[in-house]
Design a protein that fits this description.
This protein is an alpha+beta fold. The chain has four domains: about 170 residues, 2-Layer Sandwich (Beta-Lactamase), CATH 3.30.450.350; about 110 residues, PAS domain (Beta-Lactamase); about 160 residues, Alpha-Beta Plaits, CATH 3.30.70.270; about 250 residues, EAL domain (TIM Barrel, Alpha-Beta Barrel). About 45% of the residues lie in helices and about 25% in strands. Helix 1 packs antiparallel against helix 8, helix 17 packs across helix 18 and helix 18 crosses helix 19.
Length: about 900
């Protein structure tokens, strides 16, 4: 018996040591979480600071675009109207003004130039700036030059704002975000052009203190002190912001940098006070200590059991009361909801602090009445009474004091003073559920319009197909809606205007569809509509309503009004066997047909020859896009042979396009070129051929650098591109290829389609030294009439005349006439499709300069692609 107190002491020491170890682990974990929170707040601070600056730059860019578009005479009233439309003061805290300064002085002479503010909005309170010369503020002038030369937003160093100086010379510190203003026209592309076309400067002025405080408002400034310095500013103006003086021994100092507009701000953040919730630590310390003391006391009580039985009974009764008090204290500290109800009547007898806070005063109320679903509450209580316990399989709702709560909980039976009780323990999961629902919504909806996104739309469409197949449901309709000329609005007014237009149109369409119909944004300016339970007449009527509501919508932006229209492809699903891929392809095909028929109309998909052809072309267009992405386009060369006796042996070739299929087969261009032209892929294909050929010019033909001339075909779509000539000349200069070695072939039908545009492109390229060939000459209806207006160097006779040269006198006459006219114009004449050597003598007799065809040379793969294939095969062997 004498050793029992010693055992009690040992148990107490061991229990306290275990409690200390657990408390230390909890303390370290909580400290790690606090440090992680501080780092995340510090990481978020630069992005939060960049947001108002980027917003100011966006407003300036909109104003710059207005000036470039050649806005009518600008005055203070018009400038005030622009400023009100931008509403910058609503989303840029600390916003002071937006201003325009007119440049005076010679272009390129910055030293003698002045920039005096001409228009300031709002003018009230800022009158002192009108006529003020920016050159008097070095910080502003340096930002102005950077913005002008780079055409990018520039941020000034901090300086004292002129309009806030008082009589003693003190005032608020501020910054400006600047963009240049150029004379009307296209956006200048080079530094010299920007300086030459400089009209003045645009600026947004912002007070630093309110801007920074609002940007960091919330958890950052609640928990952290911040000091911000501009690393490139003079020492007197380097400090941007300081919420408190930086202590000499700042604990957990976080240093971050924010870069914007050519300047770098250094952010130093340190905690205001220790952060963290130490409730779990207190629970471990109190609970562990209590349990250790109880065990020690129990052993100690055993030592005195025989000697002091009466006193032991009294003390045990006292300790029981203490234990119950401790148990209640522990329950009070638990974050979970703990409730105890009398099992005899089901009424609540005890609720801990968390339960009282969340549920209000529930003492005396039925436990099952807490459940929002009364049937669920009754079932839970009944199951506990019968089986002894009940666990929720999923979250359920209880009636809270302020609002309903989502909880996960369980019920169990226990005896207290020989009376059965129900113990309910539940954890509040409302915040987690709200976050889950928010994430689920974001995953299925478009952020801009709030409509369903493409993934959710396809899921619903797939489910509609399953429901119809399983239950034989009523037919439904799928509509593919594509806005007409939407790119024009983006180009004229910017993507912000385009986004606002999409929001406006999505709201208009919502008002014209039925309850239960699903409208989704599929991407860009494309929408989808799923209408259930409609026949053909109802589907046609609904599609026409949607088209008409889009046509009636008027969109206003920065003083301009736009009207848009839509092409709608309609598919009625009234028969089984359709797949999701089929429906989407049919709707896309019908929408494309609507655009071909003139836009702003509804086209119903029909399973006919034209639809089948369009589907095939769409498939080939898709395969061509994948081939370009996976670098599976191929180039072959075919030699062009001179025919005149004693001609110098030179090497001239024409490049021919091929495509390697996914199975490794080589596909001729006739299979996919029609689809490429219909779906607008030819400009990208032509540019790939030009870029690839010029980059590997010395490795196209086995003769290497001795290759005299390489001919490349250009499509009509490429010739309609205003930037084609610049692209070709830039590729020539970048790769160092003499322009005389490049021959660009255009077909006669393309040339006569837009003669003036083609002539402009040809003249630019010929002036640089490139040769121009007129391909397939003679195939058109007005060949000879247009020939006199086209400045070309080579005429290639269409192969249909060359092939019949020995049998058809008319073909001979046409070849003879083309040759004579070509020579009279100083052009070389080339015969295509020479399939037999006997034709060569006839061509020489008629004076044709060169020939091309299988009889002279069969196309071969260009050397560099041939070598790449051999290297790959060597690695795979």
């Amino acid at each position: 018996m004498s050793t029992t107190p010693l055992w009690g002491l040992l148990v107490l020491v061991a229990g306290l040591a275990l409690t200390a170890w657990l408390a230390l682990g909890e303390w370290k974990g909580e400290r790690g979480r606090v440090q992680s929170l501080q780092r995340s707040l510090a990481d978020a601070a630069p992005a939060r600071l960049r947001e108002p600056l980027a917003g100011a730059a966006l407003g300036l860019r909109a104003m710059q675009t207005v000036l470039l578009a050649g806005t009518p005479q600008l005055d203070q009233g018009t400038f005030d109207s622009y400023q009100r439309n931008l509403r910058s003061q609503e989303w840029i805290h600390g916003y002071v003004l937006i201003a325009f300064a007119q440049r005076h002085g010679d272009a390129g002479n910055d030293g003698g130039a002045t920039y005096r503010y001409q228009y300031v909005a709002p003018l009230e309170g800022n009158e002192v700036l009108v006529g003020f010369d920016i050159a008097r503020q070095p910080e502003n002038m340096e930002a102005l030059r950077r913005a002008r030369d780079a055409d990018a937003p520039a941020l000034s160093a901090p300086f004292q704002l002129l309009q806030f100086r008082d009589r003693q010379g003190t005032g608020d510190m501020g910054i400006t975000v600047r963009l240049p203003a150029y004379t009307p026209g296209a956006m200048p592309a080079t530094v010299d052009e920007r300086r030459a076309r400089e009209l003045g400067a645009l600026a947004v002025s912002v007070r630093l203190e309110p801007m920074v405080r609002q940007a960091l408002y919330g958890r950052i400034l609640d928990h952290m002190d911040v000091e911000i310095r501009d690393l490139g500013a003079l020492p007197a103006h380097a400090r941007v912001f300081a919420s408190a003086p930086l202590p000499a021994d700042a604990a957990s100092l976080q240093v971050r940098r924010m870069e914007f507009g050519g300047r770098t701000w250094e952010l130093r953040l340190w905690p205001r006070a220790p952060m963290g919730a130490w409730g779990q630590l207190r629970l471990i310390v109190i609970g562990g200590s209590s349990i250790s003391v109880l065990l020690a006391l129990f052993l100690w009580s055993q030592a005195t059991l025989h000697r002091r039985a009466v006193e032991l009974a009294r003390r045990m009764s006292a300790r029981f009361g203490e234990s119950e008090a401790r148990f209640q204290a522990l329950n009070e500290m638990l974050p979970a909801l703990v409730l105890v109800a009398d099992a005899r009547d089901g009424r609540i007898r005890y609720a801990n602090r968390a339960a009282r806070t969340q549920l209000g005063n529930v003492a005396g109320e039925p436990l099952e009445g807490l459940f929002a679903d009364a049937a669920q509450g009754r079932a839970a209580v009944a199951a506990t009474l019968v089986e002894g316990n009940w666990n929720s399989q999923e979250a359920f709702v209880v009636r809270g004091a302020d609002a309903a709560l989502w909880v996960n909980g369980s019920l169990a039976m226990l005896d207290m003073d020989h009376v059965p009780h129900l113990l309910m323990v539940a954890g509040d999961t409302s915040a987690q559920r709200e976050m889950t629902e928010r994430l689920r919504y974001q995953a299925t909806h478009d952020e801009l319009t709030g409509l369903c996104n493409r993934r959710e739309f396809e899921r619903c469409l797939r489910q509609a197909l399953l429901d119809r197949g399983d239950a034989g449901a009523a037919s439904f309709a799928l509509m593919y809606i594509d806005l007409d000329q939407f790119k024009l609005i983006n180009d004229l007014s910017g993507h912000t205007a385009g986004d606002q237009l999409l929001v406006q149109l999505s709201q208009a369409m919502r008002r014209h569809i039925r309850d239960g119909d699903l409208l989704a944004r599929l991407g860009g300016d494309e929408f989808g509509l799923l209408a259930s339970g409609v026949d053909k007449a109802q589907a046609d009527q609904l599609a026409e309503q949607v088209r008409a509501c889009i046509e009636r919508s008027t969109f206003c932006w920065l003083g301009r009004s736009y009207t848009v229209s839509a092409s709608i492809g309609l598919v009625l699903v009234d028969r089984p066997g359709c797949t999701l891929k089929d429906l989407l392809a049919w709707a896309d095909s019908a929408c494309y047909q609507a655009k071909e028929d003139g836009r702003n109309r509804v086209c119903v998909y029909r399973d006919d020859a034209d639809a089948t052809r369009r589907m095939g072309e769409m498939e080939w267009a898709s395969r061509l896009r994948r081939a370009m992405e996976q670098d599976r386009l191929l180039l072959d060369y075919q030699e062009i042979v001179p025919l005149s006796a004693g001609a110098n042996p030179v090497t001239r070739v024409e490049l021919l396009l091929r495509m390697r299929g996914e199975d490794g087969s080589v596909i001729a261009p006739g299979v996919f070129m029609v689809a490429a032209e219909r779906y607008g892929l030819m400009p990208a294909v032509d540019r790939w051929v030009i870029r690839t050929a010029l980059a590997n010019f010395a490795n196209l033909h086995p003769c290497g650098n001795r290759l005299q001339n390489c001919a490349i075909n250009l499509s009509g779509a490429s010739l309609e591109d205003e930037g084609l000539a610049d692209f070709i000349l830039d590729a020539i200069a970048r790769n160092g290829v003499p322009p005389q070695r490049l021959c660009l072939e255009i077909t006669e039908t393309v040339a006569v389609r837009d003669l003036l545009r083609v002539v402009r492109v040809i003249e630019r390229l010929r002036a640089a030294g490139c040769r121009i060939a007129l391909d397939d000459f003679g195939a058109g209806m007005a060949s000879f009439g247009y020939l006199k207006n086209l400045p070309v160097d080579v005429i290639k006779i269409d192969g249909s005349f060359v092939r019949d040269l020995g049998r058809d006198p008319m073909s001979r006459t046409i070849v003879d006439a083309v040759t004579r006219i070509g020579h009279q114009r100083g052009a070389k004449v080339v015969a295509e499709w020479v399939d037999d050597l006997g034709t060569l003598d006839l061509l020489r007799e008629l004076g044709v300069d060169s020939a091309q065809g299988f009889a002279l040379h069969r196309p071969q793969r260009v050397v560099f692609q041939r070598e790449n294939l051999e290297r790959r095969e060597g690695r795979d062997a």
